[in-house]
Write a structure and sequence with these properties.
EC number (chains A, B): 2.7.3.9
CATH topology of the largest domain in chain A: TIM Barrel
Organism (chains A, B): Bacillus subtilis (strain 168)
Helix content of chain A: 40-55%
Number of strands of chain A: 17
Subcellular location (chains A, B): Cytoplasm; Membrane raft
Shape of chain A: globular
Pfam families (chains A, B): PEP-utilisers_N, PEP-utilizers, PEP-utilizers_C
Strand order of the largest sheet of chain A: 1-8-7-3-4-5-6-2
Protein name (chains A, B): Phosphoenolpyruvate-protein phosphotransferase
CATH architecture of the largest domain in chain A: Alpha-Beta Barrel
Distance between the termini of chain A: 32 Å
Number of domains of chain A: 3
CATH superfamily of the largest domain in chain A: Phosphoenolpyruvate-binding domains
Largest sheet of chain A: 8 strands, mixed
Oligomer: homodimer
Radius of gyration of chain A: 26 Å
Chain lengths: ~575, ~575
């Protein structure tokens, strides 16, 4: 028996035989060719057959996984008809009189390196697409069979270095019980697909393909990120029980889909979801989300080479508001800069982007971008229950200035006969420490706060949460963070305003009892965390949690808080 | 009459005729030469004559400005005998058979670009030295007279693009009443020299040489950074009065050199100085400093290619402690990373260095560097009144761990028979917001706090203080900052501990009344700010300042606080 540690990318436990998805040997040698015309048509032939295959996979994905997953293969089909990729390959074949495999390899690796060097998640995913498409076309050129997971006809756990989008799209849930890969993380394609398919998955093990042989029994625990190879009968039994317990828990969660979130002693809080695109609303409703607590609008601006138009934005906001059917939607205005770059804005390189010219700072300076977004929101406001919040506010004057611009645009629209809702709540993110310290001053100006704990923790501890060397300082349970959260909640309630939280902490099982006791009104998290959180809260007493408030706030370290919460709220 | 705006680099007002320090025309053309041997000896000849001149300037600087200013010319003399510069020039003359001027120009500009590309203040100064030396040698090669400010024999104000170290070293205070340059800032050579010579100076005007003609009357106001060209009689009179008022004020300040710092109602606080090298102690004592509130030890590590030895550090700490003659010296342990890089440590490039692996984070990880510094400090402790503080502490555990390492090293030294003082106070910098928010927890562990407001403001407002685009958020008077400072002072005093401040805010005339009212015990600032601060405090009543505490802390913006303080403490 052997154990591997990886990243739990999709919850659940699977036990089955290992099926190694062998990377086909696609080693390409440079060969000189005489008839380049014949070689170019051989290349075209391979492109055509790849397109055929992708059309079939896209169909399968649409049926099994829904539109946005199928869209990935539309992107692949676009790559296959992109002259920017194909022409240089053909030119290379003719000018250098080299074989098509080599010309393709050279051209595509140039694109992959370029995209991967861009410090931007979206462009890295484009690199994965190009690598995936190149593999498929090269397979046809070399006459090498590309493994086709959809052909699997017995219960298996897939073992691979990484799963390309087309691999994961072909996974047939009936037989593929789970998978484990060497590389990848929670946000890579394979992980996102596993969660949609609800197939347990552990990624980033670094050693799956090196250790697991074909046919050997494997256990994949996607909750804790463990992979057990050739387990003893006893271990298999233990994990079967865990699997059943997980299924029971999932069933328990499912019962609460349409229930409100109420503590044991009758206190109601709102569980909302964080979303990035209109397509995410489906997941919110399926998981019993009572609202959207954070709509990150920057996705509308990313992965393109110019700003989205007012109408494009209007359509997106309108769709989300309509799909949420009157449930509240809190939209965060543009938060780019920091680690979210928009190449087409050509913002200057900064030594410390997280402490730089981003979000509301940029919007108050380059107002046309800001006003376009606000107009689109105001126009969409009549299609649902819209709330607007500004990110990265540091001073009271910044909030006042941003709100004044909103009201100015509203006035212009109303004058021009445009219908605009009259009860749009306007609030702000509390993610900069100064706003928590004098929350009483901000509470007079806002309709609500939403605490962005990811950044609030980062600035309060002066530690970049993306920097592994200082990640030990990213401490959500540090008493300093809990005291700042308390300041914000008390200040808001004193002015009759509500407080939500949209950082990862809001869905964290250790934080939830504390936050309930501190009086948080709304918890906004990733959709899949909502039902577990609702179940947890239903077993907690708000009064009991509140009774521990002073004790927790007077502790001096994270370790003390965690130990106390685990002990008290077992 | 015309006005220019620049940076007030050295206080005081000067009125005199303009003396343009013309940059000699040193344009160099590439010429092919036949006899390279003769050309090399022509080059050697020019080097020799430059050395002679520099020896004379060094002597003059030693007499007029003291050792550390003279050291600059030792550095220049070193450059003139540095084979790494000279050999490539001679090789270029022989291999490319080009004239010495061209060979020198090519080689030195390569070095200048390399040094200037290093994001490090010290290396940029090295670039200025090489440019200065190259100018001198090229002058000799071209037979062009380099202007020699020491030849000036009437009262003048020097007007130049920039003043090289050798220019400023030759300034004869008897005639040179002040100067103004196009480029440079508060920390450039010329500014530092002007302050030592106490010659009024305005740098960074961008337009001095472009606007001011030789012989025209010029007023230089080094306090406000203003330059007035061809002033009316009335303006001259106005500035003469300002000049006399400034001299009177300086005389008033001078009376308090050896006086304690006491408010109008008898409350004593300690005014200390921030220093970077042992040579700075002279300025501390000359300006009536009661202690060193911050000894930045990173200068010992910079501008070299390996770590300083334990003995090198011991010598530096011992010298400072001895020169301070029993007055307290608060030494900050190593604070590198962020904008202070040590190339020889090869630390990984970080996306946000100010939120990264720096200071105590690095020292707790790479303990040998930390332990070496602590041993040097402990050994020096018997030579004066040493206090030690750790920078960039974020959690209580970090402080406990750092203090445990100090006590471990102390135990080892004592066991080995080394004398170590028994009353070394151990404290910490409060510059990370978390430590201010739960200052009551830290106050149980430390002997004192020193509030590092430069970084505290930066993290609390999430705005990089070196980034011009967000500099408006660097707000020392923001009520959030003042409330954090209050938390720290109240927490410390409750535990019977003292609180100092070593950010720029401590010497700021708007902040001083507020800080006095909040109960700050020690104000540590640049030496030249001490006497003005002592004078200001002597006219303030602590009780009166304290009575405004609640009012100020309940304000919502910086602007409100500044207006109130200006109005109340006129």
């Amino acid at each position: 028996m052997q154990e591997l540690k990886g990243i739990g990318a999709s919850a659940g436990i699977a036990i089955a035989k290992a099926y190694r998805l062998e990377e086909p040997d696609l080693t390409v040698e440079k060969k000189n060719i005489s008839d380049s015309e014949a070689e170019v048509s051989r290349f075209d032939e391979a492109i055509a057959r790849s397109k055929e295959e992708l059309e079939k996979i896209k169909e399968h994905a649409l049926k099994e996984l829904g539109q946005d997953k199928a869209d990935i293969f539309s992107a692949h089909l676009l790559v296959l008809s992109d002259p920017e990729l194909l022409n240089p390959v053909k030119e290379k074949i003719s000018t250098d009189s080299v074989n098509a495999e080599f010309a393709l390899k050279e051209t595509s690796s140039m694109f992959v390196t370029m995209f991967e060097s861009m410090d931007n998640e979206y462009m890295k995913e484009r690199a994965a697409d190009i690598r995936d498409v190149t593999k498929r076309v090269t397979g046809h050129l070399l006459g090498v069979e590309i493994p086709n997971p959809s052909m699997i006809s017995e219960e298996v756990i897939i073992v691979a270095e990484d799963l390309t989008p087309s691999d994961t799209a072909q996974l047939n849930r009936e037989f593929v019980k789970g998978f484990t890969t060497d590389i990848g993380g929670r946000t890579s394609h394979s992980a996102i697909m596993a969660r949609s398919l609800e197939i347990p998955a552990v990624v980033g093990t670094k050693a799956a393909t090196g250790t697991i042989q074909n046919g050997v029994t494997v256990i994949v625990d996607g909750i804790n990120g463990d992979v057990i190879i050739d387990p003893s009968a006893e271990t298999v039994k233990e994990y079967e029980e865990k699997h059943n317990a997980y299924l029971a828990q999932k069933a328990e969660w499912a019962k609460l889909v349409n229930e409100p979130t109420v503590s044991k002693d009758g206190h109601h809080v709102e569980l909302a979801a964080n979303i990035g695109t209109p397509d995410d609303v489906k997941g919110v409703l399926e998981n019993g989300g009572e609202a959207v607590g954070l709509y990150r609008t920057e996705f509308l601006y990313m992965g393109r080479d110019q700003l989205p138009t007012e109408d494009e934005q209007f359509d997106a906001y309108k769709t989300v508001l309509e799909r949420m059917e009157g449930k509240s939607v809190v939209v965060r205005t543009l938060d780019i800069g920091g680690d979210k770059e928009l190449p087409y804005l050509q913002l200057p390189k900064e030594m410390n982007p997280f402490l730089g010219y981003r979000a509301i700072r940029l919007c108050l300076e380059e107002q046309e971008i800001f006003r376009t977004q606000l107009r689109a929101l105001l126009r969409a406001s009549t299609y649902g229950n819209l709330k607007i919040m500004f990110p990265m506010i540091a001073t009271v004057n910044e909030f006042k200035e941003a709100k004044a611009i909103l009201l100015e645009e509203k006035e212009k629209l109303v004058k021009a006969g445009q219908a605009v809702s009259d009860d749009i709540e306007v609030g702000m993110m509390v993610e900069i420490p100064s706003t928590a310290v004098i929350a009483d001053q901000f509470a007079k100006e806002v309709d609500f706060f939403s605490i962005g704990t990811n950044d609030l923790i980062q600035y309060t501890m002066a530690a970049d949460r993306m920097n592994e060397r200082v990640s030990y300082l990213y401490q959500p349970y540090n008493p300093a963070i809990l005291r700042l959260i308390t300041l914000v909640i008390e200040a808001a309630h004193k002015e009759g305003k509500w407080v939500g939280m949209c950082g990862e902490m809001a869905g964290d099982e250790i934080a939830i009892p504390i936050l309930l006791g501190l009086g948080l009104d709304e918890f906004s998290m990733s959709a899949t965390s909502i039902l577990p959180a609702r179940t947890q809260i239903s077993k907690l007493s708000k009064q009991e949690a509140e009774s521990f408030k002073e004790k927790i706030l007077s502790m001096s370290t994270t370790e003390e808080v965690v130990a106390f919460v685990k002990e008290t709220f077992k």
